[in-house]
Structure formats: structure tokens, C-alpha cells
């Protein structure tokens, strides 16, 4: 999964100390990434595989 | 509005891209509505809508941005129907707490999630898009159908609110069963929804 290829400044985890981010900023990202990294529940696989046949 | 027939390979590309974006949809949805089960319902609804609207997707553009618009609209609609009461799912918090993230004060993740859910919806989504999803202000503005300046100010306010909540450790339990709070939220939603048109229609 290419997690965002979009222009953004928080690519790596070690940020240069240019823009001061509050300590929780990284956590916000983690919260999001923790869900992105979850294995996909079967319900989604089922749904996706059914989409084609509904054409 | 390209009504041209898509080739089989374009359809296959669409399917593949849609599949790839599902984890992101789940993450965005969970940030928005705070409950894992409802978030997943929302994602399923989004997938069906996206599939039905696939002729309107322009190949080469961002599938993530396109589907986020759909998800967001579905969320707003459901919110108005009162399906989400913005309930906070403790089990999600527990799970997040024990997630591999645990290097640095993991407790903050749960606090943050709770704090996030107390934000007015338009600020919450702006912060999610930019601060968590990594969208640029321009992309986020497109998704929300509003001006870039509006997104910047929403993100700024959201950050300020979270800053003070998390620093003081005082995260209000915004009771969504409280009528006043609930009405306020619905009014906020009207404003948010007013911006729907732009990005949604294309």
C-alpha cells in the first residue's frame, strides 16, 4: 500500500526540527496508520470479489 | 462525466485501485466516527457507491481522494439520520493502546482518539485528512469542497484545541446524548454539508 504519495512533509519519522510539531502530531498519524496496517477483514474481501459479478 | 465505455483493463485498474485504498478508507472512517463496526459499515457502503459510480472516476487521478469524498458524504448523510451518535468505542482504544505503536507514551493515543472525537466534525475531518492522512491542504480542500483557507483554519483550530486538551489532560466527555450538544453537532453538519457540491460532483 503506498500510503500517501501526496505532497506532505512528514515522510520519515525523524523530523528535522524545522516546523515545530506538538508531541501528539505523530500519534495522530499512528492512529491512522495502525488501522491502515490492520489485516483486511474477510467481509471486505467478500464484498470486493462480489463486485465484479454484479456488473 | 465521461460516459464512454471503459475498457476491460480500465475496469481492472479501477478494481485494483479501489482494493488498495480500502485500508485508508477504514482508517479515515474510524477517525470520523470512532466506532470500528460503524466505520466498517461506512466503508462497505462507500465501496458499493464507488463501484456504482466508477464511470465518473478519472483514471490517473487519486483514488484515495475520490473515495474519501464518497465516504465523507455517506458519513454526513448517516450522521443526519442519526446513525452515529459519535459514540466512543472503548475497545478500539484498548486495542490501540496495545498496538505495536507502543514505543512512546502509548497512553496518548487513546487520549488523542477521544479528544479527536470531541472536535466539531468539520475540524475533525480536516485534521484527519491533513494530519493523519497526509493530504495537502489543497487536496483536503478538494475533498471537503471548500476553500484552502477554510481547511487551514479548521486544521489550525483543531490543533489548538487538541493541544490544550492534551496538555492540560482535560478531555471533555462531550456527551452526545445531551440534546444541546447533539443539536449543535447537527447544525455544524449543515455547514459542513453545504460544501458538499464541488468535489462530490465531477
From TrEMBL, chain A:
What is the organism of origin for this protein?
Qipengyuania gaetbuli
- Which residues are in the Anti-sigma factor NepR domain? 21-55
Region (Disordered): which ranges? 1-24
User: What Pfam families does its record include?
Assistant: NepR
Q: Which domain of life is it from?
A: Bacteria
Ranges of biased composition (kind: Polar residues):
1-10
Family annotation (InterPro entries): NepR
- What protein is this chain from? Anti-sigma factor NepR domain-containing protein
Automatic annotation (TrEMBL), chain B:
Domain RNA polymerase sigma-70 region: start-end pairs: 21-83
* Record's keyword terms, sorted: Sigma factor, Transcription, Transcription regulation
Task: Please give a single GO biological process term from the UniProt record.
Answer: DNA-templated transcription initiation
Q: Where is the RNA polymerase sigma factor 70 region 4 type domain?
A: 111-162
The Gene Ontology terms for molecular function here are: DNA binding; sigma factor activity
Q: Which residues cross the membrane?
A: none
Q: What family is this?
A: Belongs to the sigma-70 factor family. ECF subfamily.
This chain belongs to which protein, by name?
Sigma-70 family RNA polymerase sigma factor
Species whose genome carries this gene: Qipengyuania gaetbuli
Q: What is the lineage of its organism?
A: Bacteria, Pseudomonadati, Pseudomonadota, Alphaproteobacteria, Sphingomonadales
